[in-house]
Amino acid sequence: MNKGLLTSWNDNRGYGFIKSSSVAHDTFIHISSLKHMSRKPKVGDTIYFEVATDPNGKSKAVNCRIEGVIESKVENKLEKTAAFNTPFKMSKAKKKSSTLANLVALVIILSIGFSAYNRYFANTHAGNKNNPPPLLPMPTRVSIS
């Protein structure tokens, strides 16, 4: 990996040149090799790059990154993580429908409970009100003499 200084940049055309002590001549750089960066390069930026040769014999910078600038892929991951950790907000329409559903469920549960209560207690206590509990015979004393 080479390190160099961006000495010129044509923003309209999307290319520039990097001066590096490890490469004999200035190296051509195209904006497409920096598309993953979160900002465009500026003259004076330190660029890390590799050198590749085109089929026509010209050398160019590839696998480039700008020192101190975050990659947009990493930035997107951070944004997605932040969005995932943000509390979920329901719209008012959904809140109303869920409240209505909860109310309906509560009414159904209460009606089932009331019905079961009436069937159990009405049958057991109704019989007891009309008919007194049966009298049990008193035990007799037996004396042994």
From TrEMBL:
Keywords: Membrane, Phosphoprotein, Transmembrane, Transmembrane helix. SMART domains: CSP (SM00357). One of its GO terms (cellular component) is cytosol. PROSITE patterns: CSD_2. GO terms for molecular function: mRNA 3'-UTR binding. One of its GO terms (biological process) is regulation of mRNA stability. The chain crosses the membrane at residues 99-117. Residues 1-66 form the CSD domain. The keyword 4Fe-4S does not apply. This is CSD domain-containing protein. It comes from Pseudoalteromonas nigrifaciens.
